[in-house]
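REQUEST
  id: r-88c1
  op: predict_structure
  target: Elongation factor P
  payload:
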Amino acid sequence: MASTNDLKNGLVLNLEGQLWQVQEFQHVKPGKGPAFVRTTLKQIPSGKIVDKTFNAGTKVETANVDRRNMTFLYKEGDDFVFMDTDTYDQIPVGPGVVGDAAKFLLENSDATVAQHEGKVLYVELPASVELTITYTEPGLQGDRSSGGTKPATVETGAQVLVPLFIDNGEKIKVDTRDGKYLSRA
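RESPONSE
  id: r-88c1
  status: 200
  body:
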């Protein structure tokens, strides 16, 4: 059990038998009335997002989530196989759990895998990854960094919008949360 005053981003709550991850929270003290905590919660298996308010100081049940650093080894059928870097145990993770992170997973890349009671809840990648452009249309003479963007395919098969001056074979940094181009690597 934890108090609403102890909430932080990433904390997993057990509300009415379902697991919810805190995405955002805000303590609010209005001029009149008691203080409360406004939260945005994401249901873990489905990804459904809801807003919920709690009275300040209310006790909420937290889930015991084991977050481990793991290495993505390979894809076997539909499953993604991860290896625990401490124990060298290998676990298969279904595509529904990996979700959008699959677009940026390369073999031997690191990820954080969260488990609850032996069941994998979600896979979290670093904030950015370096990927190589496999195909993009050639840029034209005079294209500058302040110009537009063009689609590019990276080595994982994902589509990323990049500036016009980026060419095939270049390494770029991509934000794993929204899939946007950050910079050249």
